[in-house]
Design goal:
Layout (H helix, E strand, L loop, with lengths): L1 H30 L7 E15 L4 E16 L1 H11 L3 E11 L5 E12 L12 E2 L2 E2 L18 E5 L4 E13 L2 E15 L12 H6 L3 E13 L4 E14 L9 E11 L1 H48 L18
Antiparallel strand pairs: 1-2, 1-12, 2-3, 3-4, 4-5, 5-6, 7-8, 8-9, 9-10, 10-11, 11-12
């Protein structure tokens, strides 16, 4: 009976020991994915910013500029692309909406980002664009891969339509969460005017006809939770200028926007809570269950060997037969 039990325990030990690496290296890469219908909204603010008044074409100080960024999963588009791509695809329709202190629009830039649901690598398909202009992204945008590494990545800048390195700058703690800090600098680059301008009657074509050009630079900062690859916080030191042309009169350049853009406090708390809950799910598949199954396998193997050893132990000698002494007769 002991030998049969030890064989069952041995089989279970092998099963759980084999399940441990399978769960980590086979199941996790296939189970960890961005849902196609995900919706995100983020509000950022630039306090004491500089903003161009298009009525006077003069830069002025304003108490606040607000940027609302939305990312909405387009399930219908992702399913259509998946049929030809042969892999799980996510399509995010994004919008970056900038408004001044009076609530009036400063700019609105729509964007379509298509990427692999598991690796976050870009997937090139019809519809990939920034502000209506077709683009071909290289590198990541918005989100890092699951199990982010301590290294530099290629990051796509939607304003300049270029990909540039974003550098790993070290490990930090943000609101109790261990994060990797990344930083990217985009030098002064000539960029297109937004398709929708803040003043009625002014179009990108009419501004371009004056010879005036738009230039942009930024220092982009992200604090990324490495297990989920999700940024828990972000900042930009953002500057835009208009240069040259008859639109500026006798001036060579004028600031269109300058400010230190930061996530609004209530959205920081919400993001940290959301990332923390998703982090637990990733830990379950990459650490808790694999190590738990491996430990269970070792314990079952130990118990199996112990029962097998007990079963093989030789039995002791049989007890001797005792007989009663017979009485002696004369």
């Amino acid at each position: 009976m002991r030998r049969r039990t030890s064989l069952v325990l041995l089989a279970l030990a092998v099963f759980f020991a084999a399940l441990s690496p399978l769960l980590r290296w086979y199941a996790f890469p296939r189970l960890a994915k961005i849902p196609p219908n995900q919706y995100q909204e983020m509000v950022l603010e630039a306090k004491d910013a500089t903003l161009l008044d298009y009525g006077t074409m003069r830069a002025r100080k304003v108490p606040e500029v607000t940027i609302v960024q939305t990312l909405k999963g387009n399930v219908e588009a992702s399913e259509r692309i998946e049929r030809t791509a042969g892999r799980d695809v996510v399509v995010w329709d994004g919008l970056s909406y900038v408004q001044g202190p009076d609530g009036e629009m400063v700019s609105r830039i729509p964007e379509r980002y298509i990427f692999d649901a598991h690796t976050q690598e870009p997937v090139h398909a019809t519809g990939e664009m920034v502000d209506g202009d077709p683009v071909r992204r290289e590198g990541i945008e918005f989100k890092w891969p699951f199990l982010t590494e301590k290294r530099n990545y290629e990051y796509f800048d939607a304003q300049a339509r270029v990909t540039a390195p974003i550098h790993y700058k070290g490990t930090r703690t943000f609101r109790g969460v261990e994060v990797y800090y990344f930083e990217q600098t985009i030098p002064w680059t000539k960029v297109p005017f937004p398709k929708v301008m803040p003043v009625a009657g002014i179009t990108p074509e009419s501004v371009a006809a004056t010879g005036t050009t738009r230039w942009y630079t930024t220092v982009r900062k992200f604090w990324v939770e490495p297990l989920t690859g999700a940024p828990v916080y972000g900042e930009e030191i953002h500057k835009e200028e208009l240069r040259g042309g008859t639109l500026l009169g006798d001036r060579d350049r004028v600031t269109a926007f300058a400010g230190h853009v930061k996530m609004r406090e209530d959205y920081i708390d919400h993001t940290v809570d959301l990332v923390d809950s998703n982090r637990t799910l990733v830990l379950l598949l990459t650490s808790y269950l694999p190590w738990g199954f491996l430990t269970l396998g070792v314990l079952l193997l130990t118990l199996s060997l112990y029962l097998e050893a007990r079963a093989r132990r030789p039995a002791g000698p049989a007890p001797g037969r005792t007989t009663e002494a017979e009485p002696v007769t004369a």
